[in-house]
Amino acid sequence: MKLKQLESFLGDLQQFSNPKVELEQYPTGPHIASRMIYTAENSFDDIGNKIVVDFGCGCGTLGAAAALLDAG
């Protein structure tokens, strides 16, 4: 999957409508999330066919990105 395609898919995900700092609800936008996961896969081969766990996942953006790149 190409980077821009990944970013586009992530842009369709619903984020926190009113994030609460006291609950540490920090949304990870599609631009940074797509680049983080894309780099982990293409530079380090750390995503595809690997088990990926997104602890403290919030909106699940990183987990969804990993799943789109064939993570388990």
From TrEMBL:
<dbReference type="InterPro" id="IPR029063">
    <property type="entry name" value="SAM-dependent_MTases_sf"/>
</dbReference>
<dbReference type="GO" id="GO:0008988">
    <property type="term" value="F:rRNA (adenine-N6-)-methyltransferase activity"/>
</dbReference>
<protein>
    <recommendedName>
        <fullName>Methyltransferase</fullName>
    </recommendedName>
</protein>
<dbReference type="InterPro" id="IPR051720">
    <property type="entry name" value="rRNA_MeTrfase/Polyamine_Synth"/>
</dbReference>
